[in-house]
Write a structure and sequence with these properties.
By secondary structure, the chain is of the alpha/beta class. The chain folds into 2 domains: about 5-75, Arc Repressor Mutant, subunit A; about 85-195, Rossmann fold (3-Layer(aba) Sandwich). It contains 9 helices and 10 strands. The protein has helices at about 5-25, 35-40, 45-50, 65-75, 90-100, 100-105, 135-140, 155-165, 195-205; strands at about 30, 65, 85-90, 110-115, 125, 130, 130, 145-150, 170-175, 185-190. Helix 1 (about 5-25) packs antiparallel against helix 4 (about 65-75) and helix 2 (about 35-40) crosses helix 3 (about 45-50).
């Protein structure tokens, strides 16, 4: 079993991956922790400490090979394995997520979207058509699904998460304004949009 890695480190890994991808696209082959620090606004010591949790990957006097480090972080994040997603909620948010093209580029494939509102069922959402919730159980039983995106009101989120867990889904990207309480072998990444705005409000108030 992997030793404990703090949530703060895990939260920074996608940023490393994104910046390294931009460097790779710009044709940069190697970079030092100090150079990466200036770009990412993270201290060089923090970068080295973060990466040392997984083996380091750098070489003294050389720095990091950009492509190699990007691929190593992709592996740590599990991006070498394609993930199959479904969306619960065919409203504006669900449709926006369904139509975002970058997910597939990173191995996250949105395959179906469901809603219980007859006025929404049948609408286009990206490359898909919104399906009725009555088809959900059969779909999950017959199609490999790793992650469920919950773009629904908070009152329905817990019940739907329990239902999906019973069908074998153990990872939830939760946009409902409620924290899910799941079994120990299930995981939820809660996205509270208003929390981000309140953090911005704090910075506006307390920045001179």
């Amino acid at each position: 079993m992997q030793e404990y890695i703090s949530k703060a480190v895990i939260k920074r890994l996608p940023r490393y991956y994104r910046y390294l991808g931009e460097l790779e696209s710009a044709g940069i082959e190697r970079i030092s922790s100090e150079e990466l620090s200036r770009i990412m606004k993270v201290t060089a010591s923090q970068i080295r400490q973060d990466l040392n949790n997984f083996g380091g990957f750098g070489h003294q006097g050389y720095g990091y090979n950009v492509e190699t480090l990007k691929n190593e972080i992709a592996s740590i994040l599990g991006l070498e394995i394609p993930h199959q997603l479904i969306i619960i909620g065919g409203g504006n948010l669900g449709k926006a997520i369904a139509g975002y093209p970058k997910f597939a580029e990173r191995g996250f494939h949105v395959n179906a979207i469901f809603d219980n509102d007859d006025s929404v069922v049948g609408d286009r959402a990206g490359e898909m058509t919104v399906r009725p919730m009555g088809e959900l159980d059969e779909y999950v039983r017959t199609h490999p699904t790793d992650i469920a995106v919950l773009a629904i009101p908070k009152g329905a989120a817990a019940e739907i998460a329990d239902r999906l867990y019973g069908l074998g889904i153990k990872a939830f990207w939760n946009f409902a304004h409620v924290d899910l309480h799941l079994p120990d072998d299930a995981y939820s990444e809660n996205v509270h949009l208003s929390d981000s705005l309140m953090q911005l409000s704090y910075r506006l108030k307390h920045t001179n």
